[in-house]
Amino acid sequence: MGDKYEALKLKNQLCFPLYACSKEIVKAYKPYLDEIDLTYTQYITMMVMWEHKELRVKDVGKYLYLDSGTLTPLLKRLEEKGYIKRQRSPEDERDLIVTITESGEALRKKAVKIPEKLGACVDIDSEKAQALYSILYEIIGKLTDAEK
Amino acid sequence: MGDKYEALKLKNQLCFPLYACSKEIVKAYKPYLDEIDLTYTQYITMMVMWEHKELRVKDVGKYLYLDSGTLTPLLKRLEEKGYIKRQRSPEDERDLIVTITESGEALRKKAVKIPEKLGACVDIDSEKAQALYSILYEIIGKLTDAEK
DNA sequence: AGAACATAGATTGTGCGCAATTAAATTTTA
DNA sequence: TAAAATTTAATTGCGCACAATCTATGTTCT
Description:
2 copies of one chain form a homodimer.
Chain A: H1 15-35, H2 40-52, E1 54-56, H3 57-64, H4 68-80, E2 84-88, E3 96-100, H5 102-111, H6 114-122, H7 126-145
Antiparallel strand pairs in A: 1-3, 2-3
Chain B binds a DNA duplex (30 and 30 nucleotides) through helix 1, helix 2 and helix 4.
């Protein structure tokens, strides 16, 4: 009981269930995302594009906590699928402007059912969901503000 | 306000903060894990090995929710580093038995400070941590039991 | 204006993470 | 007991995720 390595046991970790839960939920999305030929990361990227229509790569990265190493190839794939356009900003050639296409907008109609389908899988009561949500953003805030 | 696509907005997702939080915490581990030359996944794998000393790949996978596609190369890397041994079971040649080495045991002493170091980074009050923990395992349970 | 600095995205390399498939060993069933 | 089914790990292929580096473009500072 309570040996000196207690803190190193899996069951005493907070990060592990977070890591495992995140993976399992993403896995639960898969059958629904397969229907619209998107990965989870592509899906959340389309989410910010559906909402903002036009963004620099940099801003997409800020919303999603992703860098260009992840986004550059991912955005190229979304462009190949026809959901977005990528073009340099005329004002500042360093910026790459991502714009949603009509086909990308059309995809939104297909995707609109996904949140409720997933809600049915996870099925957690709304107080717990709210608690979870606020604690997660509290942690994210601490980890990403402190940074600089 | 509350258009028909409200459910598709990033701020209304529960999975996204989970996904982002998981990544940010793993990132927070990195400087400490770098010191002992482990990735996060290797670290949690060592955690189950520190506790159990000897396990089949299958059981490691059950503890960590990982399959052989992830574990086979990861365990080979840990074997190269000298922390574990991999050998077939004589009773059932299908099973691969993973055993911790002395060097692997020694690593535990170096790792023992990591949980508190990370606690200092995340710094969340213990009621919230407890709530988070139990909600996460509730979701994990629903997603992994329902499966079969 | 020219040099130093800063910024944005692309590239490279490593390691997951997982679906799908394969191969070998074992168990079950007819 | 021979054939079919199951179990286990390994392999293959793809897409992240991220650190580190590189390149091109802008900005700032003398």
